[in-house]
Amino acid sequence: MIEVQNLTKQFGSMTVVKDLSFEVVPGSVLGFLGPNGAGKSTTMKMITGFLTPSSGSVRIQGHCIASHRQAAQAEMGYLPEGAPCYEDMTVAAFLKFIAEIRGARGALVRQWVDRATDTVSLRAVLHQRIETLSKGYKRRVGLAQALIHDPSILILDEPTDGLDPNQKHQVRQMILDLSDQKIVIISTHILEEVSAVCSRAMIINAGEIVLDDTPEGLCQRAEGHLSVSLRINGVDDEVLSQTCSELPQCRRVAMIDGGGVLVFPAEALGDPLTALQEMMKANNWQPEWIQQHQGQLDEVFRSATGGRLQ
Prior knowledge:
Alpha-Beta Plaits; alpha/beta; 4-stranded antiparallel beta sheet
């Protein structure tokens, strides 16, 4: 388990992380989501022990990162932003070096390197210099060094930043495959990353947690969640809008450019689709089209980080 209590970090007069508290349990993939400069990477560095908090505490599998740093760090694998490596080394030499730093000796070094190599599919480039690899393979090398000692916790800072769509898919699939057995924390500003791999999402803005939920739960907070767009054959949109607005399930109606209306649900009464279908039946109206919409994570993100979330 990861336990973070009242974590704060100041640089001079600037507070970049403000009183964060949360826990992460095994089997979770937690996504730290936020705009650039929100405090995600600083939080990662404090959790992993690379930065000392101004106040607050972090416990890793029961070990306090401040007083028992070595024991805590032995439980973690860390991929920093940019996946820095010694690029003049071959993949095999670099992973052997990391294994030895992590305490492996003799035959155990080979065993660890083989396991990490197979986990992230590096066998084909094992004897190439890291500087010759694609960004996708460099990310795999970064993941391999984080996994080399088979840690119970993975901390990954922007693991797919700068990768092409195929490379992103490969790295995300690797993360999902690992998440059954490990706690995984991912720091990202890429919205699709959260939906693709995370079981829990935490939006951070200006160093503070503003939302903490599943990705599905966050989407349900969007104003447009369960909204319905429709257009009726032979019915003026103004008439349609007025009729829809009289339904108790309707909170407001917006006109759609190009024709049709968008009906937003009243929060207490939920889904307006059934009421709209009954309205059309009562008026003997035939829809030209009708579509219900799910909430979008980008809408929630903009609201939460722009201070407009209801």
